[in-house]
Amino acid sequence: MHRKSLFVLGLFALSLSACQNASTKDANQDQTDTSSQAEENTNTPPAVPDGARVFFANLNEGDTLTSPFLVEFGIEGMEVEPAGEVNEGKGHHHIIINNSYIEFGGTVPADSVNIHYGGGQTSDSLDLNPGNYSLTMQFADGYHRSYGEQLSSTINVVVIN
């Protein structure tokens, strides 16, 4: 009986060691994957073609809007695609509320005033409280790195109920 207990204990120790090695390998692999993504994300986005621009397709400077309201994103010289990959001449839209464009290569934050359209959306309904707003449309690459001032457009609007 004593030999059998030692054998079972030995098998347990061997399997525990194998699990720890697998976990360490998985953790090391995750760390490697994360660091390579971080390295990839520190690069700048592809160049912006001459003449490329974004614009509000259905809104104008000074418009008075009833909330919720539709915002249609216009773009020329680039193509819209979902976030996730970086492809030259492509990217996706963001709306920045009450702030300016993001410098070329800067990452667009994701929060209540920096709205991401990483699914490749070309319009959205915004529901804002009454007040004066600055809306900045910012185009960015698949990693949410801004294409800068050239691919941004800002308008001021008044929202009423």
Structural features, described:
The protein has 161 residues and is of the alpha+beta class. It has two domains: 1-42; 53-160, Sandwich (Immunoglobulin-like). It has one helix at 2-41; strands spanning 53-56, 64-66, 69-76, 79-80, 90-97, 114-116, 123-126, 131-140, 152-160. Strands 2, 4, 5, 6, 8 and 9 form a six-stranded mixed beta sheet that branches. The protein has a three-stranded antiparallel beta sheet with strand order 1-3-7, with no helix packed on it. The relative contact order is 0.21. The model is unreliable at 1-40 (pLDDT under 50).
Give the CATH H-level superfamily of the largest domain. Immunoglobulins
Cα radius of gyration in angstroms: 25 Å
Helix % is 10-25%
* Whole-number total of structural domains: 2
Strand content: 25-35%
Head-to-tail CA distance between termini: 82 Å
Q: Can you tell me the residue ranges where pLDDT is under 50 for at least 5 consecutive residues?
A: 1-40
Which characteristics define this entry?
161 residues, alpha+beta, Immunoglobulin-like, 3-stranded antiparallel sheet, 9 strands, elongated
